[in-house]
Amino acid sequence: MTHPIVIVGAGQAAASFIAKLRSSDYMGPILLIGKEATLPYQRPPLSKKYLLGDLTLDRLLLRPQSWYDDNQVTLKLSTTVTRINADDQQVTLSNGVNDSETIHYEKLLLATGSTPHWLPEKMGGRLRGVYTLRNLVDVNQMKPEFQAGRKLLIIGGGYIGLEAAAVAAGLGLEVTVIELADRILKRVAAPETSDYFRNLHQENGVTILENTGLKALIEEDGRVAIAKLDDGRELNVDFVITGIGVAPNTKLASDTGLNIDNGIATDLQSRTSNPDIYSAGDCASFEYLGQRIRLESVQNAVDQAENAASHILGEEVAYQPIPWFWSDQFKTKLQIAGLNLGYTDTVTRTGKREGSQSVWYYQNDKLLAIDAMNDPIAYTMGRKILAAGNNPGKVEVVDPTTNLKDFI
């Protein structure tokens, strides 16, 4: 190719895309463009090991600088793409010094990720001491807040909020989680999984307030100090973390005229509506079991990016994942296989270890997904059962004497 393959966005998808191209002996030029000043790095440890100081920045990086040098990858960090000219296959860049640099591309990957929702400013969402948890800058800013005895309010009872709550409680902070819905994890998990994690957090000193919304955050001397809840209660707080979801970064794609449908719409080869532009990761949607979905996970970022690279290299491989996710909270490891979209029934299987269990999601008699809490055997077997397309009976799954291998 005469011009480079250009990647917009410097996260997990971008790094995996480049690695796939080079490991497949693609020798053409590659240009990586990222808003942040840092090389692509792991996101999941930010709210856990990195926040705790157990993981340093050099170990957080997906690849060291030397790898990009050795693989002849050109890096433009602290740089934003302001415009895509799809007709002429050009991108316009801005880095605060040169705001009109134009680069030609042969193929383009949009790996622009997602942005957390902020609380509205009128509710105190921009006060000092109010944070979102998405990138390295966010975590570096909030790290000094994590001191034993301080009062932390977490808004949103999803996985991000609960992971932050577990870290904070482990450090001796007084943690309160408020969730507007009638239970934590309602958007992503069955009541059985919600119950498991509610009990886990309460046993570790976290206060969980469900059916509870925020009315406003009140400041003292320009910094958040009080949280007014919609039930009339007022909480004294030292700082606040919001975990109220994310939105895919689609503006650049939309301005280019690409189809947007729950994110940047891609086909099963990870192509957008323009055949020379691909997309992968949190920003991209694709067809899955008759629905257009986005998967906000490391696994999806890696696999979808590799799928895009394979297609550029001439391989017609359809992207048909078996989704998997994980979450670490206190001493519990949650592993999820499949997607529970449209489930009608669940059954719970007790694991062999104390405190271990798995929740199996069905759509009538069809197995959709498994949540495994401290039960790696159930997770591993469940994922293999899903891959085989089998549907074990609910009675048999619940029976602890059943050997799950029999269903593979």
Give structural attributes:
24% helix, 408 residues, five-stranded parallel beta sheet, alpha/beta
In summary, what is this structure?
The protein has about 400 residues and is of the alpha/beta class. Helix content is about 25%, strand content about 30%.
Protein described:
This protein is of the alpha/beta class and 408 residues long. 24% of the residues lie in helices and 30% in strands. It is built from eleven helices and 26 strands. The chain has helices at residues 12-23, 49-52, 57-60, 65-70, 136-142, 159-170, 191-203, 251-256, 298-312, 376-388, 394-398, and strands at 5-8, 30-33, 73-76, 80-85, 90-94, 101-104, 107-110, 114-116, 130-132, 151-155, 174-179, 207-210, 214-220, 223-229, 234-236, 239-242, 246-248, 264-265, 277-279, 284-288, 291-293, 324-329, 332-338, 345-350, 357-363, 366-373. It has a five-stranded parallel beta sheet. A hairpin with a 2-residue loop joins strand 13 and strand 14. Helix 1 packs parallel to helix 9. The chain is globular. The protein starts with a strand and ends in a 10-residue tail after the last helix.
